[in-house]
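G., the chain you wanted modeled:
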Amino acid sequence: MIAIAAKNARLAWAVLKYGEDFKLEPGTI
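Predicted structure as tokens:
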């Protein structure tokens, strides 16, 4: 569950940082 939480946190951080770019390239992570 720790790994899942870390992944979710990383995804959320990426969305906040990259915004639309992340939506265009969701497979980069």
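The radius of gyration is 10 Å.

Shout if anything looks off.
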